[in-house]
Every structure is written in structure tokens, then in C-alpha cells.
Amino acid sequence: MPKMEMIPKMASVVAQASGVSLRTPENSHLGLSPSTSSQSALGPYVGRTYDLVEDEDRQPFYVGMRGVERKFSLCKEVREMRELDKLMKNFNPALTDKPQLRVDDYFVDSIREVAVGIPAYMRMWILNTATLRKKVTWEDFDLHFLSGVSRPKFTLRQLSDDLFVIEIVAHLQGACVFGVKCRGITLKDSPFHIHAVNPQWSPTNSFAVVPTQTFCGDVVRVDITCKDQFGYLYPGASDTLDISLSGPAVIDKMKVKDNKDGSHVLFFKATKIGRYKIEVSAFNDNIRGSPYEILVLPTRPDPNQTKMEGEGCKKAVAGCVHEFVMEPRDKYGNSRLVLQSGEKWNAELVEVNTGEKVKIDVKPVKSGKKVLFHCDYRAFKAGKYEMTLSVTEEDGMVLSAAMPNHIVVLPGITSGKKSILTVSTTNGYWTMRDQKKVWQLKAGSNLNLAVQSCDKFGNYKRKEISQLVCRAEYMEETSDSAAVGAGLDVKVNNNRDGTFKGSITGTKAGKYLCHVKLADEEVDYSHSTSR
Questions:
Q1: How do strand 344-351 and strand 174-182 relate by DSSP bridges?
Q2: What are 49-88's pLDDT values in tens digits?
Q3: Residue among 353, 245, 344, 341 nearest 296 (CA)
Q4: What's the CA gap between 344 and 360, in Å, rounded?
């Protein structure tokens, strides 16, 4: 080709790539003028236009950008023209039009194996979509079957401007080869080879979602998923699915729900604390992660289930400090492993008849893996007491309960000073002399005595082992000294219920001083003078 014939074609190519319109007789009325550099370089050839890009006899002219490196590809004849070398060096790449697609602008996430009857998806990304002259749509792609026993069904979907998905559904086993083109350009990894096989259960892809811990009484949900070698749900494992649960207690009520798609849901409830193991298998092979372990913790405390040990929780003696140990439990009878923050326990005794209250000091102590409370109290009034427990949880909820057993507080040691003496007679009277009662009796009359034994806190004793001592002394009229009253007949009887009865009979006229003692102590108001 003559050298001068290439210059007009090169002028048209440069003008189209740089976006500069050439002035021709047809568009001279638009007032357009080419750039100074282009007009001076091309000279008299700006009046003719040629489209070298669409010329099939030559390589296409391409001016594009990839990263920061700019490449210019010209046809062989243009590169041989030394006269245009200077023009191409002075050419501004920023004025070029956006490039077209090339083979390297595709990225395909290819697959090698698909399951028969289950859709498989192959993704394709278009790189550098922002620099393309025209957006790529699904209509630009061409999917064609090449060879193979299995003839899958192909469906192309466009998810975004740069992401396309090919759905492949194979109905027969075997190999298949297919190709993909975009705008006439074959993808660099095309043709693609896939193999369709029947799905099989995979123990490594199957799994179960098991909570690590739960509370007694809560319904535990375990989601079991059976999958094939491709990661799809496999319903065929339902008939051979085996679930076993072992732990501190036997779980009788287990419910397994089959969703008919390869997934199952296990429901069960444990009422005994401890670690349980769940083993899931199919086709005599455990799924991934089996056996699973779940920790069952005690639920919220229940005062009604609290266990108490010690003598102090059964009976006590008035005025003495008594202790016992209390073990908090939940409503299923499980020991508490730890106290929650803000959890407080209180206990008190309430006397059944009078309603008198006695506070119990409760202190938590750690004993092995469970929590215990050390309790002590001191009651002064004898009687039957009812114990009331209350617990305040972290959320402010208060739970209270009365213990079924009662604590009996017995009277303490007998005290003569606190015991009660009652004196009566049917044949006489008494007068006060020197703040003392002086009984006036006839000879041969009886002075009746009744004593109620008490402890030092004034509690009546219901059973007395001490002996009541009643002694009378004869006092002569002329002397203050007392002699043994031989003329008095004294009788004392222990009723075995904490009371005593006695009588004094005077057979000789005179003045006598009577003493009534219990537990080596004078009974109050026992200094009674009889005449």
C-alpha cells in the first residue's frame, strides 16, 4: 500500500480515539475544529474519514488502559510508518474512548462436579465494568453444548452489572462439555468440563447445632442437618438416622421432627443437672462433631425444695445458740452450684401461738461444687416455731415458702427464782407483815402449796426432774432463832408435768417459817410465815 494512502486512515483513527471531530465539507457549518496538534500533524488529509476498527482485513485498532500502564496497538502497516511515530508519541491517552471487553476481563468460578437433579451454580464476574464502553447484559452471552452423555439444562441469570450466574441442572449421570462466549469472545477457561453424579450422604458435611448449656426444665432444641457430598440437603438419611442421649438421668421424653428435606429437629427436657452427651449417626457413621456435649444447670431457686441438716433445725433450748446447715435447691431438687449476683437468702422463725419472730443469721459457704448456708439463731421463748425462707433474685423477684417441719424450743435450766409458787388454804387467812404474807391457820388445818417450775426466761417447764424441797422451821416466841418444826407435817408430790403440789399441816400451835426451794434456789415469794 502506498505510504501516502495510510495517512488519511490514520487521521480518522486518531480522531475517533481522541474524541476530536474532523472538519469536513459536510459538517463545516457546525463550527467544529480539530485540535491544533492533530490538524498540524495531519495536514491536508483531515477531510477524509476511514474506520480502521471495523476493517476485517487488518487487526483492530485498540487504545485502552489496564492499571497505570497504557498500551497502544496499531495495525502492522501503521507501526511501519516512521513518519507517524512522532504523532503517536504526542498523542494524549486521556482523550481515548472507553475500551471493549477482552479475554482477561472475565473471572469464572467454575465447578467440576454436580449432583443429578439438584441445581448447581457457576458464577462469572466481569472485571473493570466501570471502564467499559457499553454495559454487559445477559443477552451478550452465548451458552452452547459441545459434547457429553449428560445434557444439562443451562439457565443464565444476571445478578448485577458485573455478576452473572449459570444454573446447571443435570438429569443423567455422565460427563458434559459446554462453552461460553460473550460478544463473540470465548472465555479463556472455556470449554468447561463437568461431571454429573448421584448425590450420596456425607458425614463430614452433615452436622448438628447443639447449645453448649441450658437450665433444668427448659426445652432444648437441637437442629440436625444431613447433607450430601455437594453440601445440599439429603433427605435419604432420615430412615437410618439414630439419635442417642446419655447423662446423669434418663431422658424418657424425646421428640424428633422430620422436615422431609434432610433436616430434623430434636426436642427434649432435662430435670437433672450435669453433662449430657448427644450422639447422632446415619448409615452407621457419626455426623461431624458427634457426640455433642451439653451442660444442664440448675434453674432458679425454690425455697420449698431447700434441704436442712442439723439438730438446730429440729429442736432447740431457750437461751442457747443453735446451728444447722441449709442447702438451697431448685424446684427439681438440684443443688445450686453458684449464687447469682444479687441473690440474697433470708430465714426467720415465727412462734405459732404468739407470732413472736426470731431472726436466723444466714451465711453462704462453699462446699465442693455446691453452695451451702450456715445458719444460727437464739430463741428465748419456748414453744413451737415455723421456719420461713425467702430469696431475692437479681431481678428483684422475691420467692418465699414455709418449711413443712417445725422447730420446738424447749425451756432451759430450771430456775427457782423464776418459778411460781401459789399458796392457798380452806381454813385460814393471811395478812401482810413486814411485806410478807403471814398465814393464820388453826391447828390441824392444811396449807396447800402449788409450784410451777420455770427456766430463767420464765418459760414453763413441761417436764421436771428436779426435786421440790419444802421445809418448815419452828420459831419460839421469845427467840429469833428457829428450830426444826416438829409440829408440822410436810408433803410434796411431783406431778411429772413441771408442777409440784404439797401441803403443810400444823399439829402444834406456834409460829413457823416455811421454805420452798427448787433447784437449790428459793422459789419467789416462798418466805411465807404461817401461824
A1: unpaired
A2: 333 333 334 333 333 333 333 334 333 444 444 444 444 4
A3: 245
A4: 13
Residue 397 has pLDDT above 70, yes or no: yes
**DSSP conformation letters of 160-224:** SSSEEEEEEEB-SSEEEEEEEEETTEEPTTPSEEEEEE---EEEEEEEEE--SEEETTPEEEEEE
| Per-residue pLDDT tens digits for 428-451 | 776 766 667 777 777 777 788 888
| Among candidate residues 180, 132, 172, 130, the one with its CA nearest the CA of residue 151 | 172
Residue 113 — very low, low, confident or very high, per pLDDT cuts 50/70/90?
confident
Name residues whose C-beta falls within 8 Å of residue 45's C-beta, 6 or more positions apart in sequence. Answer: 7, 8, 11
Mean pLDDT of the chain: 75
Give residues with Cβ within 8 angstroms of 252, minimum separation 6. Answer: none
Pairing of the two strands 499-506 and 446-455: antiparallel
Q: Is 316 exposed, middle or buried (0-12, 13-18, 19+ CB in 10 A)?
A: buried
Per-residue cell: 277: 452427651
Q: In the block, which residue shows the cell 426436642?
A: 267
For the chain, the maximum distance between any two Cα atoms, rounded to a whole number of angstroms, is: 179
Sequence-distant (≥ 6) Cβ neighbours of residue 471 within 8 angstroms: 490, 514, 515, 517
Label residues 367-387 b or e (16+ Cβ within 10 Å = b): eeebbbbebebbbbbbbebeb
What is the tens place of the pLDDT at every residue in 327-363?
888 889 888 878 777 788 889 999 998 888 999 999 9
> Is residue 204 exposed (0-12), middle (13-18) or buried (19+ Cβ within 10 Å)?
exposed
C-alpha radius of gyration, the chain, whole number: 55
| Domains assigned to the chain | 3-95 (no CATH), 103-197 (2.60.40.10), 205-297 (2.60.40.10), 303-410 (2.60.40.10), 414-530 (2.60.40.10)
Per DSSP, 341 falls in state: T
Nine-digit cell string for 245: 442421649
Q: How far is CA 70 from the centre of its chain?
A: 60
Residue with cell 446447571: 168
SS3 content of the chain, % helix, strand, coil (to 5): 10, 50, 40
- Is the model's pTM score more than 0.85? no
Task: Give CA–CA dist 46/237, Å, rounded.
Answer: 77
Q: Are the C-beta atoms of 451 and 421 separated by less than 8 Å?
A: yes
